[in-house]
Specification:
The chain is α+β, with helices and mostly antiparallel strands. The chain is built from five helices and five strands. Helix 1 packs parallel to helix 5 and helix 3 crosses helix 5.
């Protein structure tokens, strides 16, 4: 399962890194990952979880999550199905904005856990959700 999830994660991360609405992708499998060398000494792959930062803040993040069709919404990440989470409106909704931002949990942060579905289906789902966000900007 992890091998399939990691293959999919790499493809999804590479797609998102090139998308104009995505400010940043934190995924150890990307060449742009700041601690890639360290990650290689600690793991055999990039894993299945990534953090992305969407332009447009909380409104864009909420719209993006609401438009996903293949990804499920969940506060617990790590399953055979792909899941998405916005800490600002889910896991850390009760934490004051200043406290969240201090530890990097900004309104634009979205966590993705990539499952074993077809990578093209995942990318198509992300692409259509991002297109709907872009249409409202």
């Amino acid at each position: 399962r992890m091998e399939a999830s990691m293959r999919n994660s790499q493809k999804v991360a590479e797609f998102l890194e090139k998308h104009p609405l995505i400010e940043q992708v934190n995924y150890p499998g990307l060449a742009s990952y700041p601690q890639k060398a360290l990650a290689r000494t600690q793991a055999d792959g990039g894993g299945a979880v990534m953090a992305i930062f969407i332009k447009g803040g909380l409104k864009a993040a909420g719209k993006f999550l609401s438009e996903l069709k293949v990804f499920g919404l969940a506060v617990s990440l790590g399953a055979v199905e792909s899941l998405a989470c916005s800490p600002a409106i889910m896991t850390h909704a009760g934490v004051p904005v200043e406290a969240r931002e201090k530890i990097g949990l900004t309104d634009s942060l979205i966590r993705l856990s990539i499952g074993i579905e077809d990578a093209n289906d995942l990318i198509a789902d992300l692409d259509q959700a991002l297109a709907k966000v872009q249409a409202e900007m």
